[in-house]
Amino acid sequence: MAAWSERLAGVRGVLLDISGVLLDGGKDGGVPIPGSVEALARLKRSQLKVRFCTNESQVSRKDLVGLLRHMGFDISEGEVTSPAPAACLVLKERGLRPHLLVSDGVRSEFHRIDTSKPNCVVIADAGESFSYQNVNKAFQVLMELENPVLISLGKGRYYKQTSGLMLDVGAYMKALEYACGIEAQVVGKPAPEFFQSALREMGLEAHEAIMIGDDIVGDVGGAQSCGMRAVQVRTGKFRAEHLARGRAATWGCF
Amino acid sequence: MAAWSERLAGVRGVLLDISGVLLDGGKDGGVPIPGSVEALARLKRSQLKVRFCTNESQVSRKDLVGLLRHMGFDISEGEVTSPAPAACLVLKERGLRPHLLVSDGVRSEFHRIDTSKPNCVVIADAGESFSYQNVNKAFQVLMELENPVLISLGKGRYYKQTSGLMLDVGAYMKALEYACGIEAQVVGKPAPEFFQSALREMGLEAHEAIMIGDDIVGDVGGAQSCGMRAVQVRTGKFRAEHLARGRAATWGCF
C-alpha cells in the first residue's frame, strides 16, 4: 500500500457525502457521527476546497443545511450538490412535467416546476410516503404514458438511521422499472454528470479531487468512474461483514 | 395458422387462471368477466378435466373459492392450485420459519407454520399492506440473516382491478432483491414445479393440458416451458397496445 501522502498527491479538494459520513439520520434529524464536526472544521481550515455531494432527497437542501448547522457543522447551502435541484434542471431542459413520488419534506424544491398533466415520474427517497397507494399511483401514471420516463434521485439500496437500516429510493426505483418494463434515469450519485457538476462548482478537475462516502457503489464507484479518487469510511451503512462475504467489491481503494 | 381442432389435438385437460380470466378483482371482490361463468360451466360439462392454477396470494384459497361460488362459478377448493399452500410445503420441507410480508387475508394459510425466530421472508401480494414500514421490516429481517432466503408467491408485475392496474408482488420482490443483493425463490407461476403439481392433481402429462391465462410470462411462458400448450386471453391485464409496442413477446401461441 502506498503512503497516504503519495495517494493524496495533487489533491486540491474534498467532496464529502453527508448521510453516514457526517451524521446518522433518524428521529429529530439524527445524530452527528463522533468526530465529524471537528474533522470538517479541520478540513475547512486546510488549503483544501470542500464541497458536499449528497443523494439526500427526503428533505430540501435548505432544511438539510439548517439541521447540519444546528448540529455544529460548518456548512452553507451554496456548498451542497444534491439531486433535487439537479433534477429540476433536467426537467426544465427537457420540458418534462413530473408526477412526484417524493416526501413532503423535499416537495418545496419543485415549486417552480409545472406538475400539471404529468409526462414523467420523479422518484426520491420518500420514506413513509412509499405507501402502496402512492407507489401504485406513480406506476399507473407511467403505464398511461406512450414513452414512460422515470427519473430517480439516486439509486441507493439502503442507508443507516439510528433505528437501523432503511430502504432507499433504489429499491422502489427497481420495483417501478420491473413493473413497467423500463429503465430509470438516475440523477444523483453515481451518475457522472452529478459528480462533474460538483467539480465545476469547485473549479477542479477530477484528478484533483477525492470523494469520501460510505457507499461503495454510489460514492466510491461513481467517483472513480469519473476519474476521481475515493475513500470509503467505516461509518454509516458500512458493514465489516460485507468485506468477508464479498458483497463489497472493494474498500477505500484509490 | 393451424385450425383449432389441430392445435387442441390430444388435449385432455384445461388449467384456468382466475384473476383476469374469470374475474376482474376490485372492491367487494370484483366482478365476473362477461361470459366466464357460462364458459366454465360449458368446460365442466365437456370431457375435459378442469383445474384452476392461480397466483392469487392476497386471500386464502377458501375465501377465494367462496367469492367465486358467490359469483356463480362452479368451483371447489380441491380444484385450486395456489401458491400459499405450495409455499407451506416448501417451508416445512426445508425447516424454514418465515417472516410473513403478506396481507391479513392470506395469513390463515400459514397458521400451522412456525414463525418464531424467522430465518426467511415470504412475500405475497400484500396490496395495501405494502407500507414502507412493512416492506422495510422484511428488508431488515433479511439483512440480519447470514444466508438471506426470500420466497415470493409469484413474480407478477401487475394485475387488473376494476379501478385500474395494480402493482403485483413481483415489483416488491424486485425491490427486496435489489436492496439485499439476493435472488428470490418463486413459488407459483411461472415456476415449473407449480405447474407440475397442478398436472399431478389432474393425472395428466404436460402435453395433454392447456393453460389459459392473461399473463404472457406467468401463464403462457411458464406453461410452455413445462411442455404444455397455452393461450393468452384478451381480458384482464392484456393490453392490445403491448402487441404493437412489442412488449409482449408473443400472443396466444401454441
TrEMBL record, chains A, B:
InterPro entries: HAD-like_sf, HAD-SF_hydro_IIA, HAD_sf, LHPP/HDHD2. It is found in: Cytoplasm; Nucleus. Keywords: Cytoplasm, Hydrolase, Magnesium, Metal-binding, Nucleus. Its cofactor is Mg(2+). GO terms for molecular function: inorganic diphosphate phosphatase activity; metal ion binding; phosphatase activity. It is an enzyme of class 3 (hydrolase). Its EC number is 3.6.1.1. Pfam families: Hydrolase_6, Hydrolase_like. One of its GO terms (cellular component) is cytosol. Its main location: cytoplasm. It catalyses: diphosphate + H2O = 2 phosphate + H(+). NCBIfam families: HAD-SF-IIA, HAD-SF-IIA-hyp3. Phosphatase that hydrolyzes imidodiphosphate, 3-phosphohistidine and 6-phospholysine. Has broad substrate specificity and can also hydrolyze inorganic diphosphate, but with lower efficiency. Belongs to the HAD-like hydrolase superfamily. This is Phospholysine phosphohistidine inorganic pyrophosphate phosphatase. It comes from Suricata suricatta (Meerkat).
